[in-house]
Amino acid sequence: MIKTKDRTYLEDLSYDNADVFLRDISYGGKLYDIFNENFIFRGHSTDEYKLISSVQRINPYVEKYGFKKDTSKEFFAFAHTEFSQAFHEYQYLDEFFRICDENQLYVPEVKRMREAIPWKHKGIPFLLDKGEWLPEELYELATLAQHHGVPTRLIDWTHDINVAIYFAVSGLIRRLCEPPKYTEEEAIKKRLNDIKLHFKKTDVSADKTDKRLEIWAIDKRVALAHVGDNPLCIIHPRYYDNGNLGAQKGLLTFWKTRKPIKEDEEKRVVPEIAWRDEKTLDEHIVEFLLEKAAPSKPYIYHITIPEIGFVELYKFIKHNRCDASSLFPGYDGVVRCMKEDVMFNKIKDILL
């Protein structure tokens, strides 16, 4: 859920049903001209998610190594620092680089990752350079790794609002059809029980307490505010050799931070013990704009729609030919599309 208190630069749009939202983003609607080529979009299958990166959702040390009972409190605390997070993020990227290279897969060239450093923690010298994290020489590698599931501080976006709607709806469909302890039909019925009470064939509205999908929209021009001092980084990766990313009109963002280092009394560069960044991207942007007293206008839109609206949303994107078969070019995308169509029809039949 969104926590930003000041709404000067952020506008919440809470819809009671999907039909009104779809009218607003279509030609002639009130959002059609607002959401122009300057906007980027991201869809979530629930508004309980935060606008944070994959590496922020985990503790990299716990994820990779776990903790033993005899772990000291000091070491446990250090594992929750920004330096520890950056260090293990570098290790993820270095491991991805090495294994891909060993298996003759393309990876962007990062000279320092090829240097033979004869000790285990070879990311330390890289991190102890002064500057910003993530450094520019790792942008392309991090983009490729992120796209294939490696935890990084990058967040995926799209230029096309239809793609954002697809990922929100497809994520919901897959969650609804996951049967952890029940048969497939029992799991769907159990998950939809709360919203089914609000569903009528003649009225698809739902009260505002229902579970909701969400769409984020950010004006890319916010990155131009106080250029040189603005930590928001927008990466436009090349589409040439990445069919999925090109089909999805994808791009990525992250919030740059100063490398978590400092100088000790002897002027040596050492890790700085500062807590890891837990802020969401919307919080970072709003706080930055407030600090710089930027012109007062919405740069971020946070849109929520009742879950029950997924029926109309799915029909809408299918009509616009925006489904798994077009967003994941190839045979796997076709099969994914077929499976999602089957799951959608099963859920729709239970609701109706």
Descriptive overview:
The protein has 14 helices and eleven strands. The strands form four sheets. A four-stranded mixed β-sheet has the order 1-11-5-2. It is an alpha+beta fold and 352 residues long. The two termini are 30 Å apart.
Give a quick summary of the entry:
The protein is an alpha+beta fold. The protein has helices spanning 18-25, 60-64, 73-78, 82-102, 111-114, 123-127, 139-147, 161-176, 184-196, 243-247, 281-292, 310-319, 324-327, 331-351; strands spanning 10-14, 39-44, 132-133, 155-158, 212-219, 232-235, 250-255, 257-258, 261-263, 269-271, 300-306.
Give the helix/strand layout.
Layout: E1 10-14, H1 18-25, E2 39-44, H2 60-64, H3 73-78, H4 82-102, H5 111-114, H6 123-127, E3 132-133, H7 139-147, E4 155-158, H8 161-176, H9 184-196, E5 212-219, E6 232-235, H10 243-247, E7 250-255, E8 257-258, E9 261-263, E10 269-271, H11 281-292, E11 300-306, H12 310-319, H13 324-327, H14 331-351
Parallel strand pairs: 1-11
Antiparallel strand pairs: 2-5, 3-8, 4-7, 5-11, 6-7, 9-10
Helix pairs in contact: 8-12, 8-14, 9-14
Overall 3D form: globular
CA gyration radius, whole angstroms: 22 Å
| Count of DSSP-assigned helices | 14
Give average pLDDT, whole number. Answer: 82
